[in-house]
Design goal:
By secondary structure, the protein is α/β, with parallel strands linked by helices. About 25% of the residues lie in helices and about 25% in strands. It is built from 7 helices and 11 strands. The strands form 2 sheets. Strands 1, 2, 3, 4, 8, 9, 10 and 11 form an 8-stranded mixed β-sheet that branches. A 3-stranded antiparallel β-sheet has the order 5-7-6. It starts with 9 loop residues before the first helix and ends with a helix. The relative contact order is 0.18.
Length: about 230
């Protein structure tokens, strides 16, 4: 069987992301954040987005560009403390923010990728984070029902990919990317290097190609990554 070549021009890979879409974006701060795909999403202009990301990045980096252009209506995240714009938009009522404990966000995404409806946890059971959420009692212990998260599109960053979409991440840049690649209807991966079929050994594949729809090869490293590397 001949495997398809999924390498795609960035304009085509992100085309069709419509207003109101839910978009997962990989990354933990800088590592693993698909900066180039984010810039293209800003350029294409889809609005009223729900963005699921670990953090809101910092000023003039990553998600902040989407916030600056007014494209995000709702942010599902763990913290926004490094981004004054996100804080201001939330306080002004222009951005709805849903906070999660970091492990809970990861588990909600994992559950979405595994086809589960949600998870049970006692984390934050007695805090405002549990407000409005369903509760269950099992063997005398109370749990919150945290619903699974899925998205219309996931944007992720890989160090290497092959043309079929098998992905390899470096160190902590792996973070949320493999989970999000399993929890979205459409997955677009940017890769610093795209290899021919068979260019990655089985042990080097962290996300298998069947989860990936489009591979975009980066022709240059984004300024955000360049700053950190310098």
């Amino acid at each position: 069987m001949r495997l398809p070549d999924k390498t795609t021009a960035i304009e085509d890979a992100l085309a069709g992301i419509s207003d109101g879409a839910t978009v997962m974006i990989g990354g933990f701060g800088v590592p693993g954040t698909p900066f180039t795909l984010i810039h293209e999403l800003v350029r294409q202009g889809a609005r009223n987005l729900t963005v699921i990301k670990n953090d809101a990045n910092e000023t003039d980096m990553g998600v902040d560009h989407l916030l600056a252009s007014g494209q995000v209506a709702r942010l599902i995240t763990t913290h926004i403390g490094l981004n004054p714009r996100a804080i201001a938009q939330m306080n002004e009522g222009r951005l709805e923010v849903e906070f999660n404990a970091q492990g809970i966000l990861a588990e909600r995404v994992r559950a979405g990728g595994a086809g589960l409806g949600g998870i049970l946890t006692d984390i934050a059971e007695d805090t405002e984070l549990a407000h409005g959420k369903q509760r269950l009692e099992i063997d005398g212990k109370r749990y919150i029902v945290e619903t699974a998260l899925r998205a219309d599109v996931a944007l992720i960053h890989a160090d290497r990919a092959d043309a079929f979409g098998n992905l390899d991440y470096v160190a902590t840049a792996r973070n949320f990317n493999p989970l999000m690649a399993m929890a979205a209807t459409r997955v677009v991966a940017e890769a610093e290097q795209v290899l021919p079929m068979g260019g990655l050994s089985p042990d080097e594949v962290h996300t298998p190609g069947p989860f990936v729809d489009h591979v975009v090869e980066l022709t240059e490293i984004s300024e955000e990554y360049a700053i950190v590397r310098r």
